């Protein structure tokens, strides 16, 4: 799949048995659009989501960034975080909506990881297909559509980025 890129060598012993998918815009970063983000990345990280990413990495989970942005725009983020994989937009295939769910499913199949053992973190209704692909969805913020799903499915929640970080 050419929307996936590996960003670090697999130096773990054995294969990962779980994955954690992190929507970038508005979830991992407080900025809803990377093109409009200015200043150092450190100010833009959403601390609870960044902590979750580091926690999953420490557990040996496959860490995957999922973004509407393209690979060039994501380069500073991938350099800082060194995820295992990146699912991002290409000119002919934007990474939005159902595309995020399809890409996540394809990556899990390729890696032989059961979706029931996986996590996804996202902030808006358009990310519902990504959240629906995993056994442990986490809603970030207060999108009303996602909150309804979270209440029905007993999904975890994390707070939205604070206004002064945006």
If you had to describe this structure to a student in words, what would you say it looks like?
- It is a single chain.
- This protein has 166 residues and is an alpha/beta fold.
- It has one domain (4-10, 18-165): Rossmann fold.
- The chain is 31% helix and 20% strand.
- The protein contains five helices and seven strands; from the N terminus they run ββαβαβαβαβαβ.
- The protein has helices at residues 47-58, 71-81, 98-111, 128-132, 144-153; strands spanning 4-6, 19-23, 62-70, 85-89, 119-122, 136-140, 156-158.
- A seven-stranded mixed beta sheet has the order 1-4-3-2-5-6-7, sandwiched between helices.
- Strand 2 (19-23), helix 1 and strand 3 (62-70) form a beta-alpha-beta unit.
In short:
This protein is α/β, with parallel strands linked by helices. The protein has helices at residues 47-58, 71-81, 98-111, 128-132, 144-153, and strands at 4-6, 19-23, 62-70, 85-89, 119-122, 136-140, 156-158.
Secondary structure tally, helices? 5
Overall number of structural domains: 1
CATH class: Alpha Beta
Q: Oligomer, anyone?
A: single chain
The dominant shape is globular
The secondary-structure class comes to alpha/beta
Mean pLDDT: 88
Q: Which runs of at least 5 residues are low in confidence (pLDDT < 50)?
A: 1-12
Percent range for helical residues? 25-40%
Walk across the major sheet and give the strand order: 1-4-3-2-5-6-7
Rg, alpha carbons: 15 Å
- Secondary-structure element order, N to C: EEHEHEHEHEHE
- C-alpha termini separation: 33 Å
Biggest beta sheet summary: 7 strands, mixed
The CATH topology is Rossmann fold
Per CATH, the superfamily is: HAD superfamily/HAD-like
The count of β-strands is 7
The CATH architecture = 3-Layer(aba) Sandwich
Strand content: 15-25%
